[in-house]
Structure formats: C-alpha cells, structure tokens
Design goal:
Number of domains: 2
Keywords: Cytoplasm, Glycolysis, Kinase, Magnesium, Metal-binding, Transferase
Protein name: Pyrophosphate--fructose 6-phosphate 1-phosphotransferase
CATH class of the largest domain: Alpha Beta
Shape: elongated
Strand content: 15-25%
Family: Belongs to the phosphofructokinase type A (PFKA) family. Mixed-substrate PFK group III subfamily.
Oligomer: single chain
Number of helices: 11
Structural class: alpha/beta
Bound molecules: 6-O-phosphono-beta-D-fructofuranose
Subunit structure: Homodimer or homotetramer.
Largest sheet: 5 strands, mixed
Strand order of the largest sheet: 3-2-1-4-5
InterPro entries: ATP_PFK, ATP_PFK_prok-type, Phosphofructokinase_CS, Phosphofructokinase_dom, Phosphofructokinase_III, PKF_sf
Amino acid sequence: MRVGVLTGGGDAAGLNAAIRAVARSALSEGDTVVGVRNGWAGLTGEGDHVEMDRSAFSGILQLGGTILGSSRVNPMKREGGLEECLRNLRAARLDALVAIGGDDTLSVASWLAQQCAPVVGVPKTMDNDLSVTDYCIGFDSAVSIVTEALDRLHTTAASHHRVMVVEVMGRDTGWVAVTGGLAGGADLIIIPEFPLTLDQVVAHLDRRRAQGSDFSIIVVAEGVQMDGVTSAEAAAATDAFGHAQLSKRGVGESLAAMIEQRTGHETRVTVLGHTQRGGSPTAYDRVWATRVGVAAYGLVAERRWGMMPVVRGGSVEIAAMSDVVAEQRRVPIELYELAGVFF
Ligand code: F6P
C-alpha cells in the first residue's frame, strides 16, 4: 500500500511522535510511506508530497513541530478545493491517507471519507476540545508550559505584590487555562465556558487583598469575551478557516489595563502564545501520540475509512471522524468549580 500522512492546522508537540508511529507501523508491513507537505496545501493545487524512507522517521520522537509542515489551508473554502484533494489523492496513487489534526483538518478528512476516499484521522489539538476523545495530542505539553510559567510568575508576583495576568491559548474552550491554572495554583481562571464580568474580577481581587493576599495570578484563555476588554477591530482578523486570530485580540493586555485602572494595583501581563505549542513533547504526549498513531495504521490495514482512534477511559477506542468533529468538548462545570476552590 502507499500510505500518505498529513498534519494540518496549528502544530502541537507530539505530532512527530504520531507521524513516526504511523510510518514505522506501515514500513514494518512493507508499505510505502508518502509525506504530504503542509497540511491540505499538499493536496490542493499541484499537490506536494514525497516518498519517505525509514531514516526520515529516525530521531523525531522528541522533536516539536512537524517534519511534514502544516498550514491552515482549507479546501472547503477554496472553489473546487475538496474535489482537488480527491484528484490529488488519486494522482499521488495513495491507497490510504492518515490525517492528523483538530476539528478543521478532521472535518475535511471526514468529508473526503464520505466521498469514499480512503482516509482515517488522528486527534491532535493542544486545545484538547475534540468531541468523543478524552485526549488530543499536544495538550499535556501545552499544560506543562503553562504550569512552569505560573511557577515562575508566582515568585516575581509575590516579590512585587502585583497582579499577573497570564493569557493562554484556547479559542473556544478553556481546557489549557483550567488545567494549567489548577496545576500552577492560579488565583483566578477565566475561560470561554464560564465568562466573568470585570466587576466580578475586581471584586475577587479586592477580596483577596482584604484577606491578606497581596498578589494574584489570573489565567485567562485568549478566546474569552468580556465587555470592554477586547478590541472589536483586532477581532476582525481571521485565518483561512475563518477563525479570528485571537493573538491579535489582546485579551490579556486589555484585561490587565482595565484591572490596573479599576483597582490601582500594579498589574503585568504575560502572553504565553506559541511557546505553548513549541519544543519537545512531554512523555505523556509521546506515549499517546504513539498509541493513537499505531492504532490509526491498524485502521488503514483494516480499511476502516472514515474512522479514527480516540482516547476513552485510558484506552484507545475507535470512533467515526464525523462524530468527533460534530461538536466541541467544553470544560464541565465540575472541573471549573474544582479550580474555584482555590480562588
Ligand atoms: O487551534 C489551536 C490554536 O493553538 C488555538 O488555541 C489558537 O487560537 C490558534 O491555534 C493559533 O493559531 P495560529 O498559530 O494560526 O496563530
């Protein structure tokens, strides 16, 4: 078989571990591995793909990013783009394609599979908000970066008696914010699922000061909507999938300015941004990327197109891609309330 592998959307630590797992499984069965470059860009236009031998997958387990490159090119937004993908799949003589990505990448993969293309998926997004699966590649590495940052910010916040606003990634959901905030001992976490008003934030900070806590660490997810806190014009910038470029909204900056103005407490902001996606994957990400990567090849071998491995209750299970992309998995109130015990 000729097995194509593609990584789409935002990169995340652990992608190379997944690529390696798919490739090594395929190569050991005598298949040919074809790397599709830069996500769906590699299957649109002229296409861009290359046969890769075993040496290409050596030494990449611990590497961040993706050796295949990625992009947010969206064939669904391109006139005839999906048909182009089908044509390029045939032109590349791919008997199978493993698409590693989040909801955007997997939506395209799912559509292709519905057109009888031989496509399976692998769950990846540091946002960790795909439905059906408990885990997506890249989440643990992102959380570990947030946790380390909070540890470091604690000592400087305490020394200067400041409010520290820490903006983390999280487009529609607050998994990274709430999990990183819990692990790093945040004094307040603001996420899209349970937004707070500025008055509530200020009241919380005043209460902490009154109780003798003279510094506070606030973790805010970049996708949070708060009245008066984000700039509408910056929110207008969008990527190829039509999503607002949240790094340009400046939620953290804007929230910090409002807090300082309202409370008079010296406030600083740290935007963790793409540091959350870069660098080496944690052991946890490497292991899950390997497990779902090997399982994805299992689906290829069984020709179970339209399916993908997911993580449920600590095991790998198999689900339909269409179910995984049907909706977003949001932070449950129980987890947010648990974090709130420490606010
Ligand atoms: O989709 C994952 C994600 O990391 C989001 O949390 C974030 O908003 C976005 O990617 C940033 O994307 P880009 O790298 O294209 O700026």
